[in-house]
Amino acid sequence: MDARRKANYSPTFLRHYTYDPPSPKSTGRRRVAPVLLWSTLLIGLPLSIFALSWLSTLPDTDLLARTNPTSTALMDHRLARAAEQGRTGKRQWIWTPLSRIAPELQRAVIAAEDASFFVHEGFDWEGILDAALYNLEAGELKRGGSTITQQLAKNLYLSSERSLFRKAREALITRSLEHRLTKTRILELYLNVAEWGRGVYGAEAASRHHFGKSASELTTDEAAWLAAILPSPQRYDPIRKTTVLTRRHQRIIRWMDKVAVTTHRRLQ
C-alpha cells in the first residue's frame, strides 16, 4: 500500500519562484529630455530677452527725488486729444511745494483716495479686494481700488489703455516710486499733477480755478469739494454740486475727522 502510494506520488508546487530582471530604462525619457531642453531655450530665451528689454524702458523714478516733472503722460494725452478734435488745448498748472498746500486739502485727498496711504507700500490689498467684490456684485467695473501711488504712476507715465502689460508696468512703477521716494514726496507729486478740471492740474491751479484763492488758504469745506471731484474732474468743472457729489463731499468731511490725527502727525 505504501509502495503503491510512493509510486504514484508526484510533488506539486503551490508557487513557481522565478527571477524577473529589472526592465531597461525607457528610451522615451531619453528622447523627451532634449525636446524639453530645446523647447525651454527656444521659448524661454526670447521671453527673457523681451522681459529685460521691456524692463529697460521703465522710467527712472530716481529723478523725481531731485527734480519736478515738466509734463505728464495724462497732460500730453489731453493735449493730443484736443488737437485731434481741432481744439486749442490749454493747461493751467502752477507747481507748489507741499508746505504751501493747505493741510486740509492733504487730509481730504488722503481720506477720499487712500486712507491707508502712510501704512501700505504702494498697494492697498484690502481695498483691492473690496473693490473686486463690489465690481463682482455690480457686474461691471465701478471701483478700482487704486492707491495714491498707483494713480501717480498712471498720471506721470502711462497711457489710458487697459491691458495686462499696462497694469504690469503700473505695478512695477508703483513699487519703484515707493522704494525711491518718501511718502511726503509722493503726496507732493500727486497733489501737483492730479487733474482737477479741463486743463487744470495741481492743487494751486485747482484752488484758483474753482475758488479764486491760493491752495494754502483752502478751508476744510473747500478742500472736501476738491477731493470729491477727483474721480471725475472734467465732469464737475466748474464744481456742479449734484446730489451724488454733495453726498461724496459730506462723506469726505466725516472721513477727514477719522484720519485727521494720524495724518496730521505725519504731515508736520
Word description of this protein:
The protein has 268 residues and is mainly α. The protein has a domain at 73-79 and 95-267: Biosynthetic peptidoglycan transglycosylase-like (Penicillin binding protein transpeptidase fold, Orthogonal Bundle), CATH 1.10.3810.10. Helices cover 58% and strands 3% of the residues. The chain contains eleven helices and three strands, in the order H-H-H-E-H-H-H-H-H-E-E-H-H-H. The protein has helices spanning 2-8, 27-56, 73-84, 103-113, 125-138, 148-157, 164-180, 183-193, 203-211, 220-228, 243-267; strands spanning 92-93, 195-197, 200-201. A three-stranded mixed beta sheet has the order 1-3-2, with helices on one face. A hairpin with a 2-residue loop joins strand 2 (195-197) and strand 3 (200-201). Helix 4 (103-113) packs parallel to helix 10, helix 4 packs across helix 11 and helix 6 (148-157) crosses helix 8.
CATH class of one domain: Mainly Alpha
Q: Taking all residues together, what is the mean pLDDT?
A: 81
> What name is given to the CATH topology of one domain?
Penicillin binding protein transpeptidase fold
Main beta sheet: strand number and arrangement? 3 strands, mixed
**Strand order, sheet with most strands:** 1-3-2
Helix content: 55-70%
Structural class: mainly alpha
The CATH architecture category of one domain equals: Orthogonal Bundle
Proportion of residues in β-strands: under 5%
Order of helices and strands: HHHEHHHHHEEHHH
Regions with little confidence, pLDDT below 50 for 5+ residues? 45-56
Form type: globular
Output the CATH homologous superfamily of one domain: Biosynthetic peptidoglycan transglycosylase-like
Radius of gyration from the alpha-carbon trace, in angstroms:
33 Å
